[in-house]
Design a protein that fits this description.
This protein has about 210 residues and is an alpha/beta fold. It contains eight helices and seven strands. It has a single domain, classed as Alpha-Beta Complex (2-enoyl-CoA Hydratase, Chain A, domain 1).
Length: about 210
């Protein structure tokens, strides 16, 4: 397989690791967690390239359960908002989205979600640790200095910004810490209402052990 084939997997498809390849008129970007600087850089470059090429339509697919950090989600959301007039962004939640990545999905002009999919986000970030971590070898109290010093909790700042954006689409007080199913999203006009009209709307419990980034 040559370099072109490695980077280009069919008409309009952008690999997460793509750097320089020809773009189709309707490219698709696979959105991951952006847990590494390389993955985040790749997403940023892919979106920028699409805007430079003035594509008429861009599709973002969440193929795996997404647990993106607040900072990565805010960056992606900002870049998507820089699209040219007339460009359509399609976001497709093929798997559940947990936490800040929800705003990337919300940035779409047309949104799709798997019939058994859902969204989940917290209203507030988990507080700083108040007990010694079991993996912390030092028997002293130095961990408290790290966790309770006077420096700002920048993670909380980013999380609050994410919450403010989500609140433009869904009322935080009503939907935070709950599983948001397709029928509820349809009721709020975030996905096609007719597609999910027959699905029952019921309150859902959050995951038993949600992760740290939500």
């Amino acid at each position: 397989m040559n370099d072109f084939e490695n980077d280009f997997h069919g008409p309009g498809f952008l690999s997460p690791k793509r750097r320089k390849s020809k773009l189709g008129p309707t490219p698709t970007i696979i959105v991951g967690d952006c847990g590494s600087s390389g993955e985040l850089d790749s997403l940023v470059e892919d979106i920028r390239t699409c805007w430079e090429r003035k594509v008429g339509q861009l599709t973002l697919e969440f193929r795996e359960v997404n647990e993106m950090s607040s900072n990565s989600a805010l960056l992606a959301y900002e870049l998507l908002r820089q699209k040219s007039p007339g460009t359509t962004i399609i976001t497709n939640a093929m798997s559940p989205i947990l936490g800040p990545g929800v705003i990337v999905w919300l940035a779409g002009d047309q949104r799709f979600i798997r019939s058994t999919g859902w969204l989940y986000f917290r209203k507030s970030r988990k507080p700083r640790r108040t007990s010694r971590p079991p993996w912390f070898d030092d028997e002293g109290e130095s961990w408290k200095v790290r966790e309770t010093d006077d420096s700002p909790d920048f993670g909380a700042v980013f999380h609050d910004q994410v919450v403010q954006i989500i609140d433009r689409y869904l009322p935080i007080n009503e939907f935070a810490n709950k599983l948001i199913v397709p029928s509820v999203l349809a009721e709020w006009g975030l996905v096609d209402r007719d597609q999910w009209r027959s699905e029952p709307i019921s309150p859902c419990k959050p995951p038993a052990t949600p992760g740290e980034n939500y």
